[in-house]
Amino acid sequence: MKQHLLLFLTALLSLNGYSQIKFEKGYFIDNEDQKEEGLIRNVDWRNNPSEFEFKISENKESRNETLESVKEFGIYDVAKYIRHIVKVDRSSGNIKNLSEDRNPDFNEEEHFLKLLVEGKVSLYSLEDGNITRYFYSKDDSEITQLIYKKYLTPDKSIAINDGYRQQLWNDLSCSAFSVRKVERLEYKKRELINYFKDYNECLEQEYVVYDETQQRDLFNLSIRPGINYSSLSIENLAVNSRDTEFDNEIGLRFGVEAEFLMPFNKNKWAIIIEPTYQYYRSEKSQEKDNVNGGTLISKVDYRSIELPIGVRHYLYLNDSSKLFLNLSYVIDLNLGSELDFYRMDNTLHSNLEVKSRGNIAMGIGYRFKDTYGVELRYHTSREILGNYSHWNSEYRTVSFILGYSFF
């Protein structure tokens, strides 16, 4: 299994180099206030970048522009970043590392701040590793962090310094706003964006929202029928005369997949969950001297709900087409499966209880217009006789899957 995983991960890394992240129309302003227009490679940064890839036109070589040489850059109608030195509180939000000081611990840092709302009052964000901080400015005033900090009280309980609410009430309150509006405001991007939009509208001021996620559908629900090509072998460690190698069989499978796209890196990563009904039926006759009638007939009727939980990585080919790779851990829920041994006269000789264990599944597929898809999936061998110390089994499956996304 380790070899299969290694090969799959190697393929993932190799193909990732060919995945398409587009150069899009943009600009930057250098330290001499000179504006240069061209194309910027939009990698949909998870963390605020310290550099970006730029080229004048499609046919020209690209070059890296950095925080040291650029004051501002943007991708038209998508994103805008402005270089500023700001005071940042990097206090940990991890419960195990909380400070006992309720006050923020500010340090001056220079970053490309991401503009979320630009207007008379503007909202910015900084994502760097495990921290997410929001900042604001009014007119041409200094850019200031909105204060939010978890801390420990003297009795070791967790408290929150939600100073951002007081800041907004003091600096950005409108006659149409109630205290309750601010008191209910969470320190979350969507809520803060809406607040800043409302404030600019209250002042009858124009504004621009740079929020790529608001246009995205980050959830897909698909039906996924398909065909399984499966085999099963069982081995008795005490009596090898009971060993059985069942034939390869074709069976139907039907799944419903929920896909949760990650809102960064151009939605190239996703979490997938796919409850799937599958079955395998086979029969094998073997001549056995120690069985009445001289023949032992082994029958398996294996039915289960598989629950693959994993990650998917997309590799864009063009605006309509993309490849994807999956890696999942499969939980298997037995549905009254049977593994029985019969004599020649069809009387029951013995039976085994089916108790399956989890396994790994790896898939490669193609998706068209985010609606239609096809996938070839390989499962590592699965143990289905998990309750026995003297029995081993290997259930192997290759699946061919069709997909249709309706949500």
Automatic annotation (TrEMBL):
GO cellular component: outer membrane
Outer membrane protein beta-barrel domain span: 217-379
Domain of life, source organism: Bacteria
Pfam families assigned to the protein according to its UniProt record, in alphabetical order: OMP_b-brl_2
InterPro entries, sorted: Beta-barrel_OMP_2 (IPR025665), OM_autotransptr_brl_dom (IPR006315)
Official protein name in the record: Outer membrane autotransporter barrel domain-containing protein
Annotated organism of origin: Salinimicrobium sediminis
